Amino acid sequence: MPAIWHTGNAADEGHRNRGWILGHFMDPACGVRSSQDVEVKWGVHAAGEQRAAWTCGDNRTTLALLVEGHFRIHLTTDYLLWGPGIDHSWEALADSVIITVRWPSQP
């Protein structure tokens, strides 16, 4: 039976999955971190790092929270909380930590 609770270090554990610590992509043996409902990412980005390509056709709602640093998210609208179908890319203007939450969790 998978664990019904988990403790850990988001930066260490996220390193194995490009920062993602919860979502559909986690093995069911990971217990509560395997979810079809939500995805959570602890994103640690060095200054100058960027996602040059835009996402396209995403069907999830996304919330990005700046924990530390200076970060620019490029959107096709003016909002930082965006719903399905809003394409985006990003750039770390300084060393930054971002928490990203998306739902639902989809392949």
TrEMBL record:
Superkingdom of origin organism: Bacteria
Name this protein carries in UniProt: Signal peptidase I
Taxonomic source organism: Allokutzneria albata
